[in-house]
Amino acid sequence: MMRKIQKVLVHEQVSQEIQNYIQEKELAEGDKLPSVEEMTHMFGVGRSSLREALRSLEALDVIQVENGKGIFVRDVNTFRFMGKVKIERERNFLLDTLEVRRALEGQAVRLAAKRISDKQVAEIEAVLAEYKRQKEAGLDTSQIDLTFHQLVIKATGNHVLQSVLDSFSVMYERFFNEPMGDKQLFDDTYPYHITMFDAIKTHNTEGAMQEFYKMMDLIENKLKSVK
């Protein structure tokens, strides 16, 4: 699946970087931020983009710009609230996407269990071996995890279903690209990759679906538990 490019405005990126800076430096209400000149160098952006980011943050009561004095953190509680809102939006987005995954990918698992070829079995076994190696080495397994799911979808032999899931790829890949800001959030799903695939390769449709739904239930519960 080709990854689609998402357009992010420069001032939005700068705004997020300023918020990250406040959080990382543990600044409190009334603390002074670096000057405009200093922040243009820190973030490598032009003054217009920085000023637009500052206007946005000032409108949200995160900062206060005082002419001739500087830029100050206005309300830490507002900043924390914004962080909670961001988490809540991300959680709701992923939960909505998970419902679609249950339907579309669930059908893919069902078809794969009926149609998977010996060649495809060997291909997925190789991916799972690499998955195990990366996991045991403490490496980021998000991309190998995504590859596993893509190969299961490919094993359906249904090009229309593959095309539908491909058009859904940007949202789908959010599960494998630091969901909720944590690459390891779904690490506990690893055993279900093994049990689901064991059922798929023996054409045990019912067993494959049971393991798939266990995986989806685990992801849902983990999303709901993030504060």
From TrEMBL:
Gene3D superfamilies named among the record's database cross-references: GntR ligand-binding domain-like, Winged helix-like DNA-binding domain superfamily/Winged helix DNA-binding domain
The entry's keywords: DNA-binding, Transcription, Transcription regulation
InterPro entries linked to this entry: GntR_C (IPR011711), TF_FadR/GntR_C (IPR008920), Tscrpt_reg_HTH_GntR (IPR000524), WH-like_DNA-bd_sf (IPR036388), WH_DNA-bd_sf (IPR036390)
Zinc-finger among keywords: no
Annotated HTH gntR-type domain residues: 8-76
Family matches, as PANTHER family: TRANSCRIPTIONAL REGULATOR, GNTR FAMILY (PTHR43537), UXU OPERON TRANSCRIPTIONAL REGULATOR (PTHR43537:SF5)
Full protein name: FadR family transcriptional regulator
Organism for this UniProt entry: Paenibacillus artemisiicola
